[in-house]
Amino acid sequence: MRKNIMRLFVAAMLTVIMACCFSVTSYAASASLWFTDPTVQVGSNVSVTVDVKGDDIGGYEMHLSFDTAYLDFLSASGGSNFSYQSNSPGVLRVVDYMSSGSSAKMSFTLTFKTKKTGTTRINPSGYVFSDGGGTPITPYAVGYSEIKIIPVPQASSDATLKGLTMSGGTLSPAFSANVYNYTANVDFSVTSVAVTALKNHNGASVYVSGTESLAVGENTVTITVTAENGAKQNYYIKVTRGKNPLSTDVFLTVGEGKRGEVSKTISGDIVPRGFEATTITLNGVEVGAVKYADNAKPAVYLLGSDTVNAGLYYVDAANMTASPIEYLGPAVSSLLVLDINTAEIPEGYEIGTFSVNGAQREVLVPSRAEEPNHCLVYAIGSAGTKQLYMYDPIEKSFQRYSFAEMGEPETTEEETETTSPETEPETPEITESQEKETQPTEKSEGGFGMFVWILIIIGALIVILGGIALIMGFRQS
Asked: What residue ranges define each of the domains in the chain, with the CATH number in brackets?
């Protein structure tokens, strides 16, 4: 009997223990509901992520409410079995479940369009969670989403500077954000400046123009500040570049529509060989010049400009015009072309124009030649003396003409025997065939004389030998 009682007691205890164990197992699953809390500008879209978290999540169903005065529902997305309904304004029903098994988290995303500024919520108004076996789970934490809708920031209208400096000169007046016009002076040697402009607002932009290729006199540098909202403000610097220290305010015309300013002096290192420094007066101003000879045109130095290259130019003081001194040929062996001097024109030539190295020049061409095939130029060679040079348009080369000095012919045997075509006497020309015909005659006359002398000598020898033979014969007899 006692054994039966003990058996019943043990069985009862086991039953209680097993019941307790099954009870703990059935309530081990848990769940919680989490929402993100975004901040967004009014008028833009906002997304809210919702997470269902737990140890054994198999599915959920819930209702969510939101304020339509702040939000317009756009869309929702979740897992493969996710679905949603919006049967009434401001209320969403969402459902999702696992096809098999369970997960530690199931998520979905809601997207809204914000309508006005302020703070609004998305609240779960009803919900059911289940585990992987379909058993309901009571959540231990349920949250909500709080959305902050802020105004769109207004773009800044600040188009001012907080600092402005310029290299090579000092601004006048001193910089002030509300002062938009400045002046500055720079030396002639300054051809460009660097401007540093500091914007007052980070969202603004700055553009600077007019800092390069400064002309002598006034130049305008413009600093344009563009604000974040597109508003613009210009700052101006009037930069005055000083005159060239060699400036004379005397100008010569160089070709059509081109003028160059005459320099006060000419640097000694650019005086051409054979030239000497001198001075001339142009428009009442004494300027430096160079000249090859007293009767030659002087040359002055013209300061460079946009239309005229700096360099030495021959001067026509009466007409206030100039023409550049030019070099022909390679730089090492170049010829410095001189101005034509009519007192030194060689016989048989006259002043005319001829294409030399592709450019029409005033040179000396053969007289009365309709189409000259060469020309002469006066130039200074490597010896530094003025000489005549003949230009060959076919070879495009220069050769020294047959005058050692200007106007003085060289006394060579070849030049003495050669006469110009105009002064040659009218003598018949001997052709090559005629020369061949005359040559045998001269040779035959010379050969006949030699033959006669040979006969005489042979005859004399015969007579002598004959005499000797007779004498020898008399002695023997």
From this structure: 31-150 (2.60.40.680), 161-241 (2.60.40), 247-325 (no CATH), 336-415 (no CATH)
214-259 tens-digit pLDDT: 998 999 999 999 999 999 999 999 999 998 899 899 999 987 878 8
pLDDT at 7 over 80: no
Structure tokens at 64: 């969510």
Strands 285-291 and 247-253: unpaired
**Beta pairing, strands 259-263 & 299-303:** antiparallel
